[in-house]
Amino acid sequence: THEKICRYIAKETESVVVSVGYHLAPEYKYPAAYEDCLNATLHFMKNIEHYGVDPACIIVSGDSAGGNLAAAVSQTLASRSDLPKLRAQILIYPGLQALDFNLPSYQQNQGVPLLFRERAAFFALQYLNGDASHVEEVLEGSHIPADVRLKYRKWVSAD
Question: How many CA atoms lie within 13 A of 155 on its CB side?
Fold first, then answer.
């Protein structure tokens, strides 16, 4: 489903795009999808000569939950001195935070198809543990302890 956009990004940026099929929630819970993406990317990067790719031309990309995975893989690889550095990460409407579903972007887009606010919370729970019975608590923000909310307020807040 993503081959066309991957080819476009690769062509336009003169880079290599690593596109990984990964295990999906709720059948496979966190960290299965992350490990799939990380292991595939590590294999590719460790065997780069076999693929005939310039190590300076690697991009990791993803959309939606895949954007989350691409960001997580990029963060993990950033500290690896034994591998080539990524040229870039391309994140297309990534799911990057599930601390607060009441931020302006969630409020402004809560009724926009396909990813309604309630559906975003549902999918976040499915991804993490496969149990979506706590959607209301997540939407209210009661799933995060007050001390954690204060700790991350600098980065995750309406301000």
Answer: 7
Calculate what percentage of the chain has a pLDDT beyond 90: 31
Is the CB of residue 61 less than 8 Å from the CB of residue 19? yes
Alpha-carbon distance of 45 to 49, in angstroms, equals 9
pLDDT of residue 85 exceeding 90, the answer is yes
Which residue in the list 15, 64, 105, 157 is annotated as catalytic?
64
Question: Token pair for residue 3?
Answer: 């081959």
What is the distance in angstroms between the CA of the first residue and the CA of the last residue of the chain? Answer: 37
15 counts as catalytic: no
DSSP result, 34-64: HHHHHHHHHHHHHTHHHHT--GGGEEEEEET
Give the residue extent of every domain in the chain.
2-92, 104-155
Res 105: pLDDT? 82
